[in-house]
Amino acid sequence: MIIGISGAVSVVVAPSAQAAVTTADFSGLVQQVTPGVARVNVTKTVSEAELAKAQTAELLRQFFGDRLRIPDQAVTPAIEHAYGTAFFVTKDGYMLTNHHVVEGADKITVTLNDRTELDATLVGSDERSDVAVLKVAGKQFPALPIGDSNIIKVGEPVLAIGSPFGFDYSASAGIVSAKSRNFSRETSVPFIQTDVALNPGNSGGPLFNQSGEVIGINSRIFSGTGGYMGLSFSIPIDAAMDIYEQLKTNGEVTRAYLGIYPQDIDRNLAEAYKLVRPQGALLTRVSPDSPAQKAGLQSGDIILQYNDIEIMRASDLLNLINRARPNDSFLADIQRDGKQMTISGKLSHAPNDVQAQGHDQQEDEVNLGLRLRNLTPDEQAELAADNKTGILVTTVEPTGLAARSGILAGDIITNLHQKPITKVTDFSSAISSLPKKGVVTIAVMRQGIPGIIGLRIE
């Protein structure tokens, strides 16, 4: 199970016949970089019964199946406290942490190593990369030096500092176990895998090389217990800084889109496609009207090089696309039906979040506090099985009208005020016809179950 996290030691082998093993000494480095690391304290408003309801639902589903519905209960909101780690990237108070550390936060504070506590503002957060940017007021903060995650080597010693289980400024060391790990379609990150002991509370903390440079943001662990089991994953700092610049400048992240579904080539496929070795990204599907289809790519093509970079695995290709920008040109060397050819084209905008508010020019603006996006072809296909279509709610602002009406992130809106919703532009048009005051209906699909929500406009 891959989970977010809200030891192994590195060795140097002497080149002698009797190899002597020594432990890397990070003591000086810890003293040097600790002032740039901070504990993140998060306060969230949650329902006490919501947690109990989730636990009860899980037990009942074991007996009655996933489609069981448990009635909502009127309860008094409670305060939940969570914690993680962040670090300074600029002297004027910009900090990096994980999206899952600050998601849904009503208040964020950071505690420095001298026990100074500061209020933090969320500049922006990106769920797909799990990167969030915070800002605290002040100057001359101890910004940490940023390294180059592209040049790290497997076996290289690394150091992490964070607050596992609330134990502030705990250091743990290990080695880089692997690079470019992609284990979920939910993310767009080529994770650095290490054997550094990370636990809940390490999330958002820095991963250092031996020079004291940040090369990653500690993000996830592979665990069957919720604690450290030898596999830890960090976001490469190069990818994180790219997200940081976009969030700082634009408040959102813009991604490129090719429209392909690639998979790895194994030994049997390599033999079937007459490849010298298992390499490349096999396209199992090309989305209609996508940049890939317009460029001439087809299902069954094998991409061997992308912009003159050799593709060994599907993750190599996805990582390059994820780091690209809309309208970037691409050149792909492919194999089709045993023949080599080159395909060129231009990337487009990925299906992006769209801010859903009201008429910007009118005083009776309806601010729902939602962020929405169109469904992907796969999501549309799943919804079509129930003769439905719609748009996905990606974020619900805690103070907006939608949140007060009970709309949740992950809901699929299929109808607003008796108007079918198939794309975000339909929703924007439907907003323009909403009354100035009163209750309108929103039809949603939640975990495969249809429902109607009354949206009160005030």
Structural summary, described in words:
With about 450 residues, the protein is an alpha+beta fold. It has 3 domains: about 1-255, Thrombin, subunit H; about 255-350, Pdz3 Domain (Roll), CATH 2.30.42.10; about 355-455, Pdz3 Domain. It is about 20% helix and about 40% strand. The chain has 10 helices and 30 strands. The strands form 6 sheets. Strands 24, 25, 26, 27, 28, 29 and 30 form a 7-stranded antiparallel β-sheet that branches. A 6-stranded antiparallel β-barrel has the order 10-11-12-15-14-13. The protein has a 6-stranded antiparallel β-barrel with strand order 4-5-6-9-8-7. β7 (about 105-110) and β8 form a beta hairpin. The protein is flat. The model is unreliable at about 5-20, about 65-75 and about 355-365 (pLDDT under 50).
Question: How is the topology of this model organized?
Answer:
Layout (H helix, E strand, L loop, with lengths): L1 E3 L6 E3 L7 E3 L3 H7 L3 E11 H17 L12 E12 L5 E4 L1 H4 L4 E5 L5 E10 L4 E6 L20 E6 L7 E12 L9 E4 L11 E3 L5 E9 L8 E6 H14 L5 E2 L2 E5 L2 H6 L8 E6 L4 H5 L6 E5 L2 E2 L3 H9 L6 E8 L2 E8 L1 E2 L4 E3 L13 E5 L2 H8 L6 E6 L4 H5 L6 E5 L2 E2 L3 H8 L6 E9 L2 E9 L1
Antiparallel strand pairs: 1-14, 2-3, 4-5, 4-7, 5-6, 6-9, 7-8, 8-9, 10-11, 10-13, 11-12, 12-15, 13-14, 14-15, 16-23, 17-18, 18-19, 19-20, 19-21, 21-22, 24-25, 25-26, 26-27, 27-28, 27-29, 29-30
Q: What's this entry about, in short?
A:
By secondary structure, the chain is an alpha+beta fold. It has 10 helices and 30 strands. 18% of the residues lie in helices and 38% in strands.
